[in-house]
Amino acid sequence: MKLNLDCIPCFQRQALQAARFVTDDEKLQEEILREVITELVDMDWSKSPPEISHIVHRIVKERTGEDDPYKTVKKQYNDIALELYSRYKKFVEDSSTPLLSSIRLAIAGNVIDFGASSGFNLNDTIKTVLTKDFRIFDYEKLEKSLQRTGELTYLADNTGEIVFDRILLETIIDRYDVKKINFAVKGAPIINDATLEDAVYTGITDLENLDIIKIDVGMNSPGLKRTGAEFLDICANSGTVISKGQGNYEALSEYKTIFFLLMAKCPVIANDLGANIGDIILKG
Amino acid sequence: MKLNLDCIPCFQRQALQAARFVTDDEKLQEEILREVITELVDMDWSKSPPEISHIVHRIVKERTGEDDPYKTVKKQYNDIALELYSRYKKFVEDSSTPLLSSIRLAIAGNVIDFGASSGFNLNDTIKTVLTKDFRIFDYEKLEKSLQRTGELTYLADNTGEIVFDRILLETIIDRYDVKKINFAVKGAPIINDATLEDAVYTGITDLENLDIIKIDVGMNSPGLKRTGAEFLDICANSGTVISKGQGNYEALSEYKTIFFLLMAKCPVIANDLGANIGDIILKG
Hints:
Two copies of one chain form a homodimer. The first copy, chain A, is of the alpha/beta class. Helix content of chain A is 52%, strand content 13%. The first copy, chain A, contains twelve helices and seven strands. Chain A has helices at 7-22, 26-41, 49-64, 71-94, 98-109, 122-129, 139-148, 161-175, 196-201, 229-237, 245-252, 267-273; strands at residues 134-137, 151-155, 180-186, 210-215, 240-244, 258-263, 280-283. In chain A, strands 1-7-6-5-2-3-4 form a seven-stranded mixed beta sheet, sandwiched between helices. In chain A, helix 1 runs antiparallel to helix 2 (26-41), helix 4 packs antiparallel against helix 5 and helix 4 runs parallel beside helix 8. The first copy, chain A, starts with 6 loop residues before the first helix and ends with a strand. The mean pLDDT of chain A is 94.
């Protein structure tokens, strides 16, 4: 996806939010915002949103000296979601449509996104998403793909959310003949995206036959580029590729064999999907 | 109120929205956004939000050649609200607490604000606000003030919304001994704020003993400064002053004799009021 003009003020909102997670010094917050704005106005806006996002968050990291401004909220939402794990694990097991129920939960968890907005309510969102109509619903296609697949590649999005991804993965493992899972997390901290540390903390890495793949987030972080040959080869060799959230959709929307699970949370993504904000999407 | 750093990206969102109301030319939209950003980054941020807002919207007007970018949506929301007038006029007349019911409606109408956000639902908001708890509720104080008053000064906010202001004013006229009303509208178009033309269109100017006061919106527009001696004298001579909406609150929050009726729609205002977004306020 191309950058939309709406992304420009949104990057600044993100930078300000990230700065405030690290420092109460309003003078420093203002300096960071001014530096981000100066960088943005001098920049060619034909880059992709994730590329610009990395530049913006690099400024926050450099100016605050904090490599992971979202550290505290990331742990907080992992903990909140882990507390909900047993209840929703049982909910899925008791469900007459466990795959669909766990997909709904994984999408509800996608509301935990500090990139897209500043305010959300996880419990209210779960309640809504468990019964809400999908705006795009390629469920049968995903089900058929899982029936045939040997290998599943799963691109995670945010901390907290990955606890619900774990329930979905466990549901898939229990019901389909998946021999290997490639679970892709970010190679370094960016916004509240999940990294290897979060995958370990939330028990994802305890799943059988699961490999972690690190995704490059710029700034010489370790990992594979989402649109690089090496990662796309892994996707091509997987029977099923599931991508969570807006950022992965922005990077990969042109790849038609990927299943995108997300909640539309910003006008730019919603518009691209022909959806409204708050709509839930299973696009394959 | 002082400008908050959150206002900086919000001004850009507003500029982009205003530009899009006038032109589909994405190149021109980008140029306008870049000019707004350049102006903002070079600016001293100790100005008040309305001051900066005027500068930002001047750029949109100059670059598009359209003096009133919100013209179409302003008429649209006046018409939508006028269609609801009879139903809610009757609702208030049938109510056991007509003053309170018309206050709630006037606050619900305050959701029609293109400055604060891009998306709102008027009908859903009315339904909610008619029963919602107030975050700040100085109702008795306002009632007592109206019982004693001879003259009422009323600062309007947005188009569409002023139809609900009309119901509130009619309710006050019918029940209290108000000899004169000063109804303050903006002296020139700014965002979707109500001007004289809207007061005429929605029948406000047909109310008895009502004078229109024009408020200066910068750029050599006609009208009195909200914090200038002449307008503050009018307020001081009125038994009751009612101010609608966020913009008037930003300009006048330090004046403790004014009753502020509004819905908190942005984090900056909400924070200043100790409220959450969506909260309804009657602060006196």
